[in-house]
Structure formats: structure tokens, C-alpha cells
Request: fold
Amino acid sequence: MVSEEIMDLVNQGTMLPLMEEFYTIQGEGYHKGTAAYFIRVGGCDVGCHWCDVKESWNAETHPPISVDAIVENATKHSDTIVVTGGEPLTWDMNPLTQGLKAQNLQTHIETSGAYPLTGTWDWICLSPKKNKLPVGEIYNKAHELKVIIYNKHDFIFAEEQAAKVSQDCILYLQPEWSVREKMIPQIVEYVMKNPKWKVSLQTHKYLNIP
Ligand SMILES: C[S@@+](CC[C@H](N)C(=O)[O-])C[C@H]1O[C@@H](n2cnc3c(N)ncnc32)[C@H](O)[C@@H]1O
Ligand SMILES: Nc1nc2[nH]cc(C(=O)O)c2c(=O)[nH]1
Ligand code: SF4
Ligand SMILES: [Mg+2]
Reply:
């Protein structure tokens, strides 16, 4: 049980339920191939049935840690910090990104956009989910849109979401991992017919790194 005092700090974003932190290579999207330090924050109620980090969902299983400690760790490893989860926008991301920016670090976020955008971000990867659509200004702010393709209908969903982002937003289709063999040929064909889209793969899984 976490005390009420600590819950208040979590609600202010000065403590966060940290699941894990690791230095790796960004596997997905525009920055794939770039070394980055990942901060995985617990807590998500979006409920994607194919989510590859379901252990992140229950915030209560991830003890709250002060953002000062998270920032101090991050500075030791990389200039590029990717904040992911869970759904990081479950929490107020302003204290964390203020701390990271004060250390001159590049702040990237991986988000479904299901909750209001908080924090100061150099790069926003928006990966919208049908069961809890993005809210508010994030469509205009996203640098990349990364739609997960699990079945044929997801191409229609991808186009609906692409209609909502800015002109310069880079568009990616990423196969859902468990059905990649079935969906990759369809994604390849779709991207060749609709070249505004690019393919994104979870390259870290092929490299056997976190
Ligand atoms: C685990 S999520 C955490 C961040 C945030 N909740 C979100 O969904 O964007 C990180 C990224 O992995 C993607 N992802 C999750 N499970 C996946 C799977 N089984 N196959 C492919 N991509 C997946 C998500 O769409 C998202 O882009
Ligand atoms: N290497 C690596 N790249 C990633 N890009 C997005 C990830 C995520 O889970 O948010 C992820 C991840 O878990 N590992
Ligand atoms: S929104 Fe992200 S963390 Fe949450 S269930 Fe979906 S893929 Fe997993
Ligand atoms: Mg991942």
C-alpha cells in the first residue's frame, strides 16, 4: 500500500510508478537504430489485447520513484530519452520532462494519446488505439503516427487517424508482432500502393535486445 502522501506526489507527477529503465537502441519508427535510454512508466487502462507489455498495466505493482532519481539515472546513459509505458500520459509528465530538459536531454515519448498531453517533448510518437482514441491537441503536435496493423480493418483505421495529424507528421504502419508473418506482405503491398506511408518494424525484437 502506498501512502496518501506519496499518491499526492504521483498525482503531481513528481513521483512516478517506474516499471523499468534500460539503455538500448530505439527499435521502432523514425529514430530506429539510435541509442536511447528508455524510461518505462507503469499504468495503462487502454487494454490493447495484443499489448507486448501487459505487466506495465497495473501501476500498483510498480513502486513510485522520484523524478529527480529517474533524471539522475538517465543523464548517465544517453542524450536521448524515450519515455514509454504503460501509458505515460496517465500521469503529469511536466516534472519529468522539466528535469530531463534541465539536463539538456532530448525527450521522446511513445503514447497512445488517450490522455491529455503533458510535458515538453522533442519528439512525439503517437500510436492511436481504437478502444481509447487520442484526445485533444496531440494530433497537431505528433511528429510521427505509428499505427499497429493486426488485421485488415486497421488499414482503414490508419487512414482515419492520418487525416487528423499535421501535414509534416511521418506516417508508419507497424505489424502487430504475433501476426507479423501474415500482415507484413499486406503492409508491404499497401505501402507500395500508398507511398505516403512507411513500414516500421520492431527491430529490437529481431536484434534480441530490450
Ligand atoms: C507498449 S506501448 C507503450 C506506449 C503507449 N502506451 C502506446 O501504446 O503508444 C509502445 C509501442 O509499442 C507498440 N506495441 C505494443 N504492443 C505491440 C505489438 N504486440 N506489436 C507491435 N507493436 C506493439 C504500441 O503501439 C506503441 O507504439
Ligand atoms: N528497443 C526498443 N525500442 C522501442 N521503441 C518503442 C518501444 C516501447 O515499448 O515503447 C520500444 C522498446 O520496448 N524497445
Ligand atoms: S496503450 Fe500501449 S501500453 Fe496500453 S495496452 Fe495499448 S499498447 Fe499496451
Ligand atoms: Mg516495446
Q: What stands out?
A: The two ends are 30 Å apart (CA to CA). The chain has one domain: 4-207. DSSP finds seven helices and nine strands in the chain.
